Amino acid sequence: MTRLIVDTAARSPFAGPVPVERDGWLVGTEATSGPLRLSDLTPVTAMVVHAEPAGEFAERFGVTVGRAELFEDGILITSVAPGRWFVLATSSPDAVADQLSAPLEDEVVTIVDVTHGHAKLRVTGELAARLLSRLVSVELSDRIVPYGAVLRTLVAGVATTIVRDDLFATELGGLETDPDVPSYLLVCDLSEGHALRDALLRAGRDLAIAPEGYAAFRSYHTEV
Description:
Number of strands: 14
Radius of gyration: 18 Å
Mean pLDDT: 93
Shape: globular
Strand order of the largest sheet: 11-12-13-10-4-14
Structural class: alpha+beta
Strand content: 25-35%
Number of helices: 5
Order of helices and strands: EEEEEHEEEHEEHEEEHEH
């Protein structure tokens, strides 16, 4: 007899064989303290916003094309094209939609939940740019891609949005006087998530890259 097992929670494609439930998702528990880590952020809420390029929404948030801004409520808003924003947050899609649209009165804004259609990964460590440079054709120096920069490019042949979003050194065991640790958010179509993750792990093998499950990442970082 065939036994059918139905998960009541969404499942990250990187959850592994023994996942745990976190934030309504089944996620992996792999932990690492290594110098270069590849973290799963797939459960993070993702929204696409369409609005007038110079309208009320654009003026309120002030996020220009090619930039990302983290707001006090934990919402990371990136601008990938005129009149189009990609939003990441740890709160629920409904809560994010309410926060984005609440003050708007005279503008039609389209907000679409695309959480389950994208894989989200984070590469963190002093060697993160060196790793990514092996898989992209663009320069990732601090001058070209500083903190808060956003670009859309191919990473190992996978169309990917890259957001430079460094972490505090204290989150990774450093001192308050240490500089922030370079970190890059990578967002791609869910169907290509495994290909992107595998390519990153292969390219970073000699750099001691290690995978990190969503549950482990959430133990020290509460934002996106």
